[in-house]
Amino acid sequence: VTSKPDISGIHGCGNTFSNPYQSFSGPYYNGDGSTIQCLWTIHSYDSSPIVLTLDYLNLDCTHEYVHVYDGNVYQSALLGNICSGWSWIFTSYTGTMTVLLHRESYRAGSGFFAYYNIAGNLGTHTFLFPTAKYL
C-alpha cells in the first residue's frame, strides 16, 4: 500500500484544469530550504483519457519529488514518484489526474515543465524513459 502524502501544506500554487490541453510548470523556488507543496488537478468531464508529459524535471532527488496520481490524491493509485529527467509520460483513464510537487532543498529554479492532452481515443500505452531518475 502506497502511503498518501500530507497535503495540508499546499502553498497557493497549482491549479485545476479541464481544458482539452494545457501546459504548466512548478513555481520559482528560491532554494532557501523551506517546504512548499503545489497541487495540480486535471479533469476530463467525459472521462476521456488524460495524457500527461513531464518534459523536464530538475529536482533535488533527496528532498524533492513530483507524484502523479491516477485520480484524486487521497483516493487513487500513484502512477509515478519522480525527481529528474525528461519525457516522462503518464496516462489516466479515470477522468482525473493529480500532480503533487514537493520541494525543500537548496536548489533554486522552477523544477519542472509539463503539459497534458485530453483525447477520446488514445492508445493504452504508458511510456517511461530511462533518462529520468525514479525514486
TrEMBL record:
UniProt-listed PROSITE patterns: CUB
Alphabetized UniProt keyword annotations: Disulfide bond
Domain of life: Eukaryota
Record domain CUB: where: 13-119
InterPro entries listed in its UniProt record: CUB_dom (IPR000859), Sperma_CUB_dom_sf (IPR035914), Spermadhesin-Link_domain (IPR052129)
The keyword Zinc is assigned to this record: no
Protein name in UniProt: CUB domain-containing protein
Organism of origin: Podarcis muralis
Taxonomic lineage from the root: Eukaryota, Metazoa, Chordata, Craniata, Vertebrata
